[in-house]
Amino acid sequence: MRAFRHRNYRLWAGADIVSVTGTWMQVLGVNWLILKATGSATSVGLSLVLTALPTMILGMWGGSLADRLPSRPVVVASQIAQAALAATLAMIALKDPGNITAVYGVALAGGVVTALGGPALGRFGAEVVPPEDLPNALSLGSVLNSAGRILGMSLAGVLMPVAGMPGLFMINAVSFFAVLAALAMMRRSEMYVLERASGESRGIRAGVAFVLRTPWLLTIFGLALVLGSMGRNYQVTMASMSAGPLAAGAGGYALLSTVFAVGTVIGGIAAAGRPQLTMRLLLATAIVTSLAQAFSGVMPVLSLFAMVMLPIAAGGVVIDTTIGSRIQLDTPEKMRGRILAVNGIVGAAAGAIGGPVLGWMCDNLGPRNALEISGLITAGAALLAAVALARINGVSVAGLLGLPSLPVRRVAAAVEEI
């Protein structure tokens, strides 16, 4: 765990798990608040859309902001804003828990803060470790996020009857100050400050031009969109399998959710233990995970389905971490914020597309067929990505699978064209 050798990263990791835990406590509280007030799962889904929509619209502005300004002030401002929004939710839940319009307003405002501040947060996270330890830091971040999710949802279930939803929201508000405290305690002399954009390389247009003129990035983002939409929305397919063919009910769905969360922790640990996160690892994991997804559709009982879910969840984290590592290490530092913003936009779009599509497939084709068809689609996308990347680099597919990364000279040439 090389990243833990650095004091600044240890502070960042500690603050991260506290903040993530608080965030998931709030997520559970908001979902329950809306469901209790409206009795509609669709209303809960609307809050998720309102949270994700600003990233798709404003994400590139956030990325441009991150590349122009020092990361620390932007991170501080975003954490204070998120704390204020959590406190606002607490007041809403305390005074008028039925005011769903106000809850939607806070969800939308939170999405705006995430869209504008998220790229700076990701850029700052890359500055607390040297470049050679960034893949390890990203892998450990996946573990911490998964652990924080499990801890947050567990604590929310225990504390909700005692503190109520206002209490959950106030705990989340306080959790953001853990990040602010960590920032205050970090040693500036031990930061690895990234180059900021200047001149013609600044702005949204330059960022979009760079992505469009970098074929391997387009290929990776295209693969991420397909994998994220057709291969990641397991909250939909697991629920459909539990309620339908497996006849496991709510208890079975809870079990599958727990197994999936454990799998994400395993995947993060596996990625953190690797010296490099390579293109070979990305493509191989994408293919294997996709075939496992197709195979999961024929599992006859809950226990066997859960066993297949475990490596699928682990593979998903390895894929996400490897993509995050490659798009940061193989692109210029001054483009980092905008590249992270595009990655965030792709993730948000995948969720917005995949949830309804997989839901329609489960309703009309059956959950087993939905898993089998979507698994084959994602496997095909991974194979096409391998062929495309091989052509871009002028090597065979077999040769590509042996490459640890893509030639940086191609990146430099793309930057010069902007």
From TrEMBL:
Gene3D superfamilies xref list: MFS general substrate transporter like domains
GO CC terms of this entry: plasma membrane
SUPFAM superfamilies with a match to the protein in the record: MFS general substrate transporter (SSF103473)
Annotated compartments: Cell membrane
Membrane topology listed for this record: Multi-pass membrane protein
UniProtKB keywords: Cell membrane, Membrane, Transmembrane, Transmembrane helix, Transport
Transmembrane segments annotated in the record for this chain: 12-35, 41-62, 100-122, 169-186, 207-230, 250-270, 277-295, 301-319, 340-361, 373-401
Domain of life: Bacteria
CDD domains: MFS_MefA_like (cd06173)
Protein name from the UniProt record: MFS transporter
